[in-house]
Amino acid sequence: MRKKSLIFMLVVVSVILIGGCSVTVQRDSLKVDKALIGHWVNTEGALDYYFSDTSLIKVEKGGTTTNMTYTIVKTNDNDNTITIQVKNPAGTVLEEDKKEIKFSADKKTMTETVTVLGVKISEVNFSYVDSKTKP
């Protein structure tokens, strides 16, 4: 009886330990379209982005939340770049809503560049936080 109890306890402990482990994805092996998905924070602390497959939630420092959608314009896994076209909340698509994103080699940071008429108007750096797609 004691042996059965010991085996039962070992099984329970094993299940708890295995269930408590989380799987860590090596970000550097992700394709750029998948690396984009998740929670990103602006390195200056001004805003957070939450990307899913087709939506983007922008949370500004003051707590203002903007829900948008996006489409992928182009990707280049060799250069670690992706270009997305964001549809703003008004439903319009403007040139400044096109974002060129370049990931670091480990895909834990990214730089978002916005250009209008071929002129760079902003460049913002972000760091990956976690896989959350909503605040």
Write structural notes for this entry.
It contains two helices and eight strands. The relative contact order is 0.19. It has a single domain (28-130), classed as Lipocalin. The N and C termini lie far apart (50 Å). Helix content is 17%, strand content 45%. With 135 residues, it is α+β, with helices and mostly antiparallel strands. The chain has helices at residues 2-20, 32-35, and strands at 38-42, 47-51, 55-60, 65-76, 81-87, 98-103, 109-116, 119-130. Strands 1-2-3-4-5-6-7-8 form an eight-stranded antiparallel β-barrel.
Gap between N and C termini? 50 Å
Kindly estimate the percentage of residues that lie in beta strands according to DSSP. Answer: over 45%
CATH class: Mainly Beta
Stated plainly, the CATH topology is called Lipocalin
Shape call: globular
Strand order, main sheet: write it out. Answer: 1-2-3-4-5-6-7-8
User: Helix coverage percent of residues?
Assistant: 10-25%
Number of helices: 2
Most strands sheet:
8 strands, antiparallel, barrel
Poorly predicted regions are 5-23
Provide the gyration radius in Å.
20 Å
Oligomer: single chain
Mean pLDDT across the residues is 84
Structural class: alpha+beta
